[in-house]
Specification:
Blueprint (H helix, E strand, L loop, with lengths): L11 E4 L11 E2 L2 E4 L8 E4 L11 E4 L4 E10 L6 E4 L2 H4 L18 E2 L3 H9 L3 H8 L2 E8 L4 E8 L7 E5 L11 E4 L4 E9 L8 E5 H8 L2 E2 L10
Parallel strand pairs: 8-13
Antiparallel strand pairs: 1-2, 1-5, 3-4, 3-15, 4-7, 5-6, 6-7, 9-10, 9-12, 10-11, 11-14, 12-13, 13-14
């Protein structure tokens, strides 16, 4: 199977600088994005600590062959997230299947906006109500390349000012970083896995909200339907 067919949200990705020893994933590919200001360019997203240094490139591999899928990585503000340009040779080979995340059968075309809850918290003067709102949870699905299975968890809907929140009652392993977090009730991206609260098999962790990423980077979700903007 050509490597480009493996390049989709939830895919196992590697930092070329790490030489992908033993096939261990550096992280997980989150999703595709585009910039309204840059027609004909497609970006990929993952956690910043997957590609921490300027010049780091993102590749996928089957252990024998390697394909460069990301270059010119740019941090998304101060968030644990970077976006990178997908080379033309890869971009022009993408099909609708590349936009369907691993573990799912349909492509998400929306991003969850936590703004309404943030506004409610800011507007209330009732301490008890404010506390209750800050601890509202949303059942989510998540996919990390190390786990390589669609998992579930409870996402704290209220994020800190920087766009980071927490997930509980889940499983996160090293290599899952960058994995997508999805609101399955409306099939929309909520965020990406940033870190587990322990080095292996964590049941809690941090999530960077994708809405905050896009605001910080001036990007929007790229979909197969809007390919006229990025082909």
């Amino acid at each position: 199977m050509p490597l480009v067919e493996e390049f989709k949200p939830g895919a196992k990705i590697f930092n070329f600088a790490d030489r992908y020893e033993n096939g261990f994933p550096t992280g997980t590919f989150t999703c595709f994005a585009r910039s309204p200001a840059r027609a004909g360019v497609l970006f990929g997203i993952t956690a910043k600590h997957v590609l921490p240094q300027p010049g780091d490139t993102c590749v996928i591999t089957d252990g024998h062959n390697t394909l460069l899928v990301g270059m010119n990585r740019v941090p998304a503000g101060t968030l644990d997230c970077v976006y990178f340009e997908i080379p033309e040779g890869v971009r022009t080979q993408l099909t609708q299947e590349n936009f369907i995340p691993r573990g799912k059968t349909v492509e998400p075309t929306q991003v969850w906006d936590p703004g309404k809850l943030q506004q409610k918290v800011a507007a209330t003067q009732d301490d008890d109500l404010q506390t209750a709102l800050k601890f509202k949870m949303m059942r989510v699905e998540l996919f990390g390349a190390k786990q390589n299975v669609l998992g579930v968890g409870d996402l704290n809907k209220f994020a800190d000012p920087g766009g980071t929140t927490y997930i509980n009652n889940t499983q996160i392993a090293k290599g899952d970083s960058g994995g997508y977090v999805l609101d399955p009730s409306k099939l929309r991206y909520a965020g990406l896995i940033s870190a587990g609260h322990s080095l292996t098999n964590a049941t809690q962790g941090k999530v960077v909200l994708l809405h905050a990423v896009f605001q910080a980077a001036g990007l929007i979700l790229a979909t197969w339907q809007d390919r006229a903007h990025w082909v």
